[in-house]
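Protein 1 of 2
SEQ + STRUCT:
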Amino acid sequence: MESEQDKENRTPPIEVSNAIKLFYLVLFLGIFSTISGISNLDKIIAQYPTFSPTFYYLIILFSYAFLFFFIYKIRKGRNWARITFFILFVLGLPFSIFTLPNSFTISLINGVLTIIGIILQIIALVFLFQKPSSDWFKSMKIKNTREQQEEEIYQTELIKEKARLQARKEFNQEKKK
């Protein structure tokens, strides 16, 4: 049974909560930008003539699903998700900046939302790497490791119990013969 202390330790610090909220805002702004860009789909396709509209939307859908996955894992206290997201953001930032002028040719709203999204992600990442956040991710790793060990012990005991029951069943069948 989980104690009040364990439940409290699972609750992320305000920095992580704020980062999660900002990531959800980025996700919402991205979806809004995509929907508002539907009327400018011809401009988007003109900039990327090798992309079909279907391919374009599949990439967008995959990107949003990917972002949602990382938000979910970060909220669950997975340090690897925090670090991986940071690395992917840093690697993708030059490409985002490089394509920023194209965002403005699609529409002013699209360009502004792109800039806002980049700024919000930077702020969220700063929150995620502050000391209270880092301490929480470390404590979650310890808890997740302990829970995993407990689950492995439980599974092992379950297997042993099944083997004991099977042996007893076989023994009783032998006695009947």
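Protein 2 of 2
SEQ + STRUCT:
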Amino acid sequence: MQGKIAAAALIVALLAAVVWAESAVVQRNRVDILKGKGSLYLPPLATARKGDSLEILQRDGRWLRVRYQGVEGFVLEASLNGTSDSGTTSGASGAGNSADAAAAAKGWDATVWAKNKGDKTDGLDAMRATRARVAADPAKVDKFKADMSGSTPGGSHP
């Protein structure tokens, strides 16, 4: 009898966990799901689009361990909303990128950091513009990767 009660209690606990599972809806155009915490874990395992739902598995400071379409990975919590400048997103509006997300996770702002050191931000600005152009047309990146997969050092093709 006690075994049946324990089994019933376990089933109720599992059902409660499913019912009470926390989720978040992506508010930005896209959010990259990373293998680990930070931009060192690029390329992303998956990319969630605006309106997609992510199951939150665990909170760790500013980072969330999530499940999206069967893939488990990490997102910076601030990258989920449309108002934060930090996150692993990019787009034509220049609304941040993975380097910004890593800096934000550490409380840094790349532009402020460069200016405080007396460095120019032209290179950083150019990089952000390039990332925005690449994000706007991923098919060109895929074609470039395919073209380069058959290349040899020095740029010549076999």
